[in-house]
Write a structure and sequence with these properties.
Shape: elongated
CATH topology of the largest domain: Alpha/beta knot
Structural class: alpha/beta
Number of domains: 2
Number of strands: 11
CATH class of the largest domain: Alpha Beta
Strand content: 15-25%
Order of helices and strands: EHEHEHEEHEHEHEEEEH
Helix content: 25-40%
């Protein structure tokens, strides 16, 4: 056992909650589950054991795996799974991240996506590894609910998916509060440090999130979460 590397064919869900999410939503990719020797048997453990038994997924007791993979002292279950990727739905709303560079931010955005009913993610290279353990942890298991694909450029993405494009930029033409989103839409966000290149002003309808003059800009995860909520809020008015 060695530390995770993005070139590996498998990745890991650290903790009981993430392991259950993996087993519930991507069980066809499950390889094995690891238990720590000090793991206390409870309802959650019994549930994992039952699912693994029914699906012939090996359960292995190995403290070494936890020393290598987990930096958290309270992690007692690890789920190993085969990496996956899937085609995006052409008739659904998308999130497009152009050159994301922070694993934790990517995971948090994925969690916001799933929280507000968007399940398709396009990632434009160069980009962080979606299967980095920090990404999986920050998503709180939401990564197992989405479809995602990597693209070499935004041009490659736009050739295949003809959604209504909404790039979020400080130089944008329209305020978020006044934007009428037409489905299926693609909300487009740039890198944490540099944002989107200026040429995105000429793609679709550019949008700005208005805020006070006391800050220069919003953190990417906050901006993306606000935009995702605003674009989907009508779906939750009666809930």
């Amino acid at each position: 056992m060695k530390k995770y590397n993005k070139k590996d064919s498998c990745s890991y869900a650290l903790g009981a909650t993430l392991t259950i999410e993996m087993l519930e939503h991507k069980i066809e990719y499950a390889k094995r589950v690891y238990f720590h020797s000090t793991l206390e048997r409870n309802e959650t453990v019994l549930k994992i054991e039952e699912v693994c038994r029914k699906n012939n997924i090996p359960i292995i007791q190995s403290d070494k795996v936890f020393r290598v993979l987990s930096e958290k002292e309270n992690c007692y279950i690890i789920g190993e799974f085969q990496k996956f990727e899937s085609k995006l739905s052409k008739d659904k709303n998308h999130i497009v991240l152009v050159n994301p560079s922070n694993s934790g931010n990517l995971g948090t955005i994925i969690r916001s996506m799933v929280g507000f009913g968007i399940y398709d993610l396009a990632i434009i290279k160069p980009a962080v590894d979606i299967f980095d353990l920090k990404t999986i942890r920050a998503s709180m298991g939401a990564i197992f609910n989405i479809r995602f694909s990597y693209f070499d450029s935004f041009s490659d993405y736009s050739k295949e998916y003809k959604n209504n494009y909404y790039p979020f930029m400080l130089q944008a033409k329209e305020k978020l509060a006044l934007t009428k989103f037409k489905t299926p839409f693609s909300l487009i966000f740039g890198n944490e440090a540099t944002g989107l290149p200026k040429e995105f002003l000429n793609i679709g309808e550019s949008v700005i999130i208005s805020h006070s003059k006391n800050i220069d800009s919003l953190n990417l995860t906050i901006a993306a979460s606000i935009a995702i909520y605003e674009s989907t809020k009508n779906n939750f008015n009666n809930r």
